[in-house]
Amino acid sequence: MDEFVTLIYNGKEMLLPVVTGSEGEKAIDIARLRAETGFITLDPGYVNTGSCLSAITFMDGEKGILRYRGIPVEQLAEHSTFKETAYLLINGRLPNRTELTQFSINLNDNSLVHTDLKVFFQNFPRASHPMGILSAMVNALRSFYPSLGTSEEEINITMTRLLAKVRTMAAMSYKISRGHELVLPRPDLTYCENFLNMMFDTPVKPYEIKKEVVRALRVFWILHADHEQNCSTSSVRMVGSARVNLYAAISAGIAALWGPLHGGANQAVIEMLTDVHTSGGNCRKAVERAKDKNDPFRLPGFGHRVYKTYDPRAKIIKKICDELLESMQISDPLLDIARELEEIALKDPYFIDHNLYPNVDFYSGIVLRAIGIPTNMFTVMFALGRLPGWIAQWKESTDDPHWKISRPRQIYTGNQQCDYIPLHAR
Ligand code: ACO
Fold first, then answer.
1. From residue 152, how far is each of 96, 112, 211, 332 by CA, in Å?
2. Residue 424 appears among annotated catalytic residues
3. From 131, 144, 210, 303, which residue has the greatest number of CB atoms within 10 Å?
4. Catalytic residue among 304, 332, 353, 424
């Protein structure tokens, strides 16, 4: 049965249709609102605004649920590979054996990057942040691969190219930043193994691929693979809505992810934990600072726009973190500080009242540290994980026959009409 919400203003009524999602989520469809009433809605930060219908990812922030194409992220983290999860997100279903093999072949075939890109990398100032470099380089791919056909086959090639090359480029940027020779991708290695090998193999010390490290990276990437309409994904959709090419849209997503309130939080967490450690390990002080409304400091890795309970990804990554450190026999003082901070915060009335729990970034930095990833590359690692989600969301939006260019409105609060005053008269 069709449902409606009645809007009454100045004695006039308007029926607004209710839209119900497959998990029972409800929205009020206001598409005809301005045309019929002259009103727009105002929702800073889009806290109550749904920007699209999407069949990719379901989250329930109150219950701590996250599913990709219906499959709980816990099951994917346990049983799937990153490659398979990427296929699932982009194509809407798990691949059969033949499809997965073909996908692997395509990724392998596209994993090399044009050698001219190396020149690009080398000309960035040494102190450049890798996220800035990655965003620029992904945009530059458009110049190296200018043929952007619109047939399904050509779009698939572009998507595969991105998944394969961005991983190579991330490892390449690390090698160049260290002044080391590049390590090329190998066809005999899996997606995760290849990345680790390209990052850490050197002619003088061959990299030993450890299964617990590969597992940690695989899970880290699966947990980050999509998260519905977050800031970077919305940026990909919004930029994509102008019908720019996929490279430009993904480049915008990378730029948005860089922010410390978003993907940059994993780097901010490690910096904060290091700070607490080097200044004597006083966790209570950090929690008190985060509560002080006169201090802009917020506890990085805590809180989430949607999750008002424990982030399901944080639960999984925390377990992976414990297991990885134990199997590698690493004792990281930052892990002890993180555990203590979490314990203090979860008992603190401010954190309880504000529903602030650890998010995925709280423990992921410690995992990345144990793998050997330098802190300034943490957000790049997040970007590599989020790539399939961005691609899937871009594809869904460009395939949508009702898609419009994103163009929010505003309520103007500036000067009313006034006259120009010549310079001599001001
Ligand atoms: N530390 C202290 N207080 C916090 C924190 C925090 N980490 N997060 C939110 N709050 C407080 C706010 O001060 C605010 O308090 P008030 O209502 O008394 O004024 C209240 O909780 C609500 O905060 P908002 O900023 O309105 O929540 P919003 O949904 O806009 O922000 C965000 C979510 C940006 C994630 C926020 O919790 C935050 O800044 N966290 C720290 C950064 C972080 O970890 N980001 C990673 C997010 S997950 C991801 O991108 C993978």
1. 19, 23, 36, 48
2. no
3. 131
4. 304
Question: What's the DSSP call for residue 204?
Answer: S
Cα–Cα separations (whole angstroms), residue 305 to 334, 371, 375, 387: 26, 29, 25, 21
Nearest one of 55, 57, 12, 52 to 29, comparing CA atoms: 52
Within the chain, how many helices (H) and strands (E) appear?
Answer: 18, 6
- The DSSP bridge pattern shows strands 26-28 and 57-60 to be unpaired
- Ligand 1 center from residue 42 Cα (angstroms): 21
Q: How many Å apart are CA 75 and CA 222, to the nearest integer?
A: 10
Estimate the share of the chain in helix, then strand, then coil, as percent rounded to the nearest 5: 55, 5, 40
Residue of 361, 399, 419, 424 marked active site: 361
Residues contacting 39, CB < 8 A, separation 6+: 9, 33
Give the number of the atom of ligand 1 that is nearest the alpha carbon of residue 355.
21
**Atom 26, ligand 1: residue with shortest CA distance:** 305
Contact 236, 250 (CB under 8 A): yes
Residues 6+ apart with CB under 8 A from 204: none
Q: Which helix (H) or strand (E) holds 26?
A: strand 26-28
Query: What residue type is assigned to position 295 of the chain?
Result: D
Structure tokens at 34: 């301005």
Rounded Cα–Cα distance for residues 376 and 178 (Å): 13
Q: Is 369 exposed, middle or buried (0-12, 13-18, 19+ CB in 10 A)?
A: buried
The span from the CA of 168 to the CA of 50, in Å, is 35
The token duo for 219 is: 């899970």
Q: Is 289 in the pocket of ligand 1 (CB under 6 A)?
A: no
Of 89-93, 119-123, 141-145, 390-394, which gets the smallest average pLDDT? 119-123
Burial bucket for residue 96 (CB in 10 Å: 0-12, 13-18, 19+) = exposed
Please, what's the largest Cα pairwise distance for the chain?
80
State which of 266, 285, 302 you would mutate to test the pocket of ligand 1, scoring each by most atoms of that ligand within 8 A of its C-beta. Answer: 302
Q: Closest ligand 1 atom, CA of 269?
A: 44
Whether pTM > 0.90 for this model: the answer is: yes
pLDDT in tens, 300-321: 999 999 999 999 999 999 999 9
Are the beta carbons of 269 and 276 closer than 8 angstroms?
no
Q: Which residues of 70-86 are buried (b: 16+ CB within 10 A; e: fewer)?
A: ebebbebbeebbbbbbb
Structure tokens given for 297: 């400091």
| Cβ contact 94:84 at 8 Å | yes
201 lines ligand 1 (CB under 6 A): no
Q: Strands 12-20 and 71-72: what pairing? A: unpaired
